[in-house]
Hints:
Layout: E1 7-8, E2 11-17, E3 20-27, E4 32-34, H1 39-52, H2 57-63, H3 70-82, E5 86-88, E6 94-96
Antiparallel strand pairs: 1-2, 2-3, 3-4, 5-6
Helix pairs in contact: 1-3
Amino acid sequence: MAADPRRRNNEEVYVYDQGIVLDKLYEDDDVVVVVAPNEDQLRDIILELLQERPMTVRELHSKLSGLASEDKIRYALNKLIEEGIVEGDEEGRYYALYT
């Protein structure tokens, strides 16, 4: 029997988008309240998105709208660049170096 994708370690989760799974705090017919990703989770989400295809900060922010500010995305990208996992080009696109 496959694991329920809406549960992680017996906690309710919300699948925000493919590859973006967040802890769910509350849900009713009108609203779902989730926990925003911490720095490590945001880093992993950004890396996964960049492994799919190169993106600009604007594209990442659009994809993560409501989850992370542009500043947090830039901070996470800078950390990934420092670690040698991501590289940027002169057109402002960021690439994952390892897939």
